[in-house]
């Protein structure tokens, strides 16, 4: 029991002493300039120990590398890095197609991201590199900006556009920039801007935002984007020259273009696609089925790429049948180049959504594998790491990266212990960039599209889980379906926003749907539960106990009062209105009697008044509720409207001689009640009587029963 005054007291009339808890003294609230000064001293002060700690936390490799267990870990790291590197070569080339770039830029992206994350990342297991959803988002921006700049759709992947335009993109010299050059300029600028967003969010310590992106939201978004990716690759499987659709409803626009151009299908590309699909799909299934027995997954993708490249080269598929090929892939690295500053305003909004998606995927995977292997990751450090994985490579013509689930699973299953495996992967990519890359000149685009499509199997399998998701939790399943449908059918970036808004709507909706429940006491002990959910619960004569399982705030305070009045079967507002109506009717009849002076009217008035009074007394006696106890254990917080709602409930019921007390309030609710004037005994006019807050329902019931029964003689179990 807690009194609304400054101290905790007991009720002397109670035969049983209620539970008394004394609040701990809170520290006095500091003034704002003191808080700012303290934080400035904390973050701006420098000492050798603090500087060392900051450097080690910002560059995690300096922590784990000196403690690296060479004999125990090196073999697993080399094996996992080698396998991931082999898998990453064909995927890097393939996903360049999805991002609207030449193959070499995908190899650059995988190389730089592997090195930078190994240095700055706090996760030991995730693989950072090209991710299909981000490639799709980047590719949409690239195609849009190419169209705005006046470049015609490209007829063959990796070829140069003869209609070159002047760069004019912040470069010091006005050299000509063809379509491929402009495409990677846009992609690198988007990547740079997204990286800046991510680093700024790390500086502002907003890594916690990842918790607002639920698993169902991210899964639905990835599945919807996968449908868009699948649709975008159909033209390569068929060898069609169809420009990528822009704006909203791209799925329908793309399928319309495909169907209208179906007669122009390239038979060579179609046959190659079918053969590669017939090989890769069963091969991937075998890898998944026997992954527990295999020490490492068999790199079927690499085998298909090598065989298809040889077949295309010696069969002259490009010259004889017009099949699109990768084209020239240069070796070495380009000189660093600044992003196009003039493009940043055009891509700023797109880059923000890309930054959020990349960060959310990376943090969720990092935390999942950290929890599995018993260590922790820092969400803000992950923000820094993925931000610099975008900023620094953007100077070398790379596009956006994040963690990728498939490669991370491969990395973990092949014995990865630290990010040393990422450095091994970077060595494999370096070897390809310096020596092997030109050998992929004759690789068909349709083979790259097959690799992308086959790797979408995991996301598309989520459709089989929809019935199970619906049985487990209909709200999560609804979020998944709405996010997926919006991402696939309307717009990819809009799908993420809609998913966030729908999730917030459902959270608010749950507080709107909360109902007041009547509680009863268990027969064997002092425990109260919902009388409609459990059998054998006892209620107290004259005392009704209710529970509300949601916060009370401005959006649901009226619903709380309505639900309470309905559950108590006693609406004080309606009761008061009926009384006023009766009194008004009585005055009118008194006036009528005085005006007419007729004895007959007087007799009718007396009989009607007596019958109305008897009716009201019968209704009151049938309810026999003299006290209400509200269990506040489910009320997490109150705002001003919530406090006012409780004050109104207490005031309205007091006018009917019904006492209202609160029980089991948490400290946040108690503080809100105190600040909101709920304990203001001067306003209530009765010191101590109406300001009692109880820590158990039993104490509250005992208290109100003593108030209702003369001399405090009552049976608590009645």
UniProtKB/TrEMBL annotation:
Residue ranges that the Swiss-Prot or TrEMBL entry lists as coiled coil: none
Cited Pfam families: STAS, Sulfate_transp
Residue intervals passing through the bilayer: 73-98, 125-142, 182-204, 216-238, 300-318, 338-363, 384-406, 426-456, 477-508
Superkingdom of the organism of origin: Eukaryota
GO BP term, example: otolith morphogenesis
SUPFAM superfamilies attached to this UniProt entry: SpoIIaa-like (SSF52091)
PANTHER family the record matches: SULFATE TRANSPORTER
Bilayer topology term: Multi-pass membrane protein
InterPro entries per the UniProt record, alphabetical: S04_transporter_CS, SLC26A/SulP_dom, SLC26A/SulP_fam, STAS_dom, STAS_dom_sf
Basic and acidic residues bias: start-end ranges: 581-595
Segments forming domain STAS: 533-704
Name of the molecule in the record: Solute carrier family 26 member 2
Keyword field: Membrane, Transmembrane, Transmembrane helix
